[in-house]
Amino acid sequence: MPYRGAGQAVNDLIAAHVPIACLGPTSMMAHYENKTLRFLAQSSETRSATLPNIPTFQEAGFKGLVLDQWFGLFAPAGTPAEIIARLNAEFAKSLTDEKVRASMLKAANDPVGGTPEQFATFVRNDSTKYARLAKELGIKGE
Q1: CA distance 51 to 108
Q2: What is the separation of C-alpha 10 from the centre of its chain, rounded to a whole number of angstroms?
Q3: What's the longest Cα–Cα distance across the chain?
Q4: Rounded CA gap, 10 and 31, in Å?
Q5: Residue 107 is assigned to a structural domain of this protein
Q6: 42 pairs with which residues across the strands?
Q7: Residue 100 resides in a domain
Q8: Which of 35, 28, 30 has its CA nearest to residue 12?
Q9: CA angle 50, 53, 54 (to 5 degrees)
Q10: C-beta atoms surrounding 104 within 10 Å
Q11: DSSP summary character for residue 55
Q12: What gap in Å lies between CA 125 and CA 102, rounded to an integer?
């Protein structure tokens, strides 16, 4: 059942209106910690450092099922290289701050940085993967 956001999906899951959901961990961590929800598997390639006891879908027998949730910083096309470099440096610096790292880990988000070029390659590869999956599965946009 599609939802417009995680909030209503989590509410319906807790109220047992739906038996299972596939959501990012951020909206569910408090419920997991309070034991109102149980995590069955995580969709990353490897287990999260925050959730080391939760197997990946691949470990649970769903080979090739890897759906990473990620956050990134984007700028408009044509933004000068020196601005991109400065933003990247500041962003990388923030990922070394213990409060930022602790906050991200508490939400089961592993802090990862890199160069703008590495991120561009990552985004292109992810876009290619999901375009292929959408085509294979016959998923069309509205």
Answers
A1: 7
A2: 16
A3: 51
A4: 9
A5: yes
A6: 56
A7: yes
A8: 28
A9: 85
A10: 18
A11: P
A12: 29
Q: How many CA atoms lie within 13 A of 6 on its CB side?
A: 9
Q: Which three-class secondary structure state does DSSP give residue 74?
A: coil
Residue 20 forms part of a structural domain? no
Number of domains in the chain: 1
Give domain status of residue 63, yes or no. no
Domain residues for 100? Answer: 70-142
Rounded to the nearest 5°, which phi and psi values hold at 82? -70, -30
Separation of alpha carbons 61 and 55, rounded Å: 10
Q: Spell out the SS3 assignment of 6-49.
A: HHHHHHHHHCCCCCCCCCCCCCCHHHHHCCCCCCCCECCCCCCC
| pLDDT, one tens digit for every residue, the chain (142 residues) | 778 888 899 999 999 999 999 888 888 888 998 999 999 999 988 998 888 999 999 999 999 888 888 889 999 999 999 999 999 999 999 999 999 999 988 888 888 899 999 999 999 999 998 899 899 989 887 6
**What tokens appear for 93 in the block?**
């610096």
Residue type, 67: L
Tokens linked to 69: 């949730």
Q: Is residue 58 within 8 Å of residue 37, measured between CB atoms?
A: no
Residue 55 and residue 47 in contact, taking contact as beta carbons nearer than 8 Å: yes
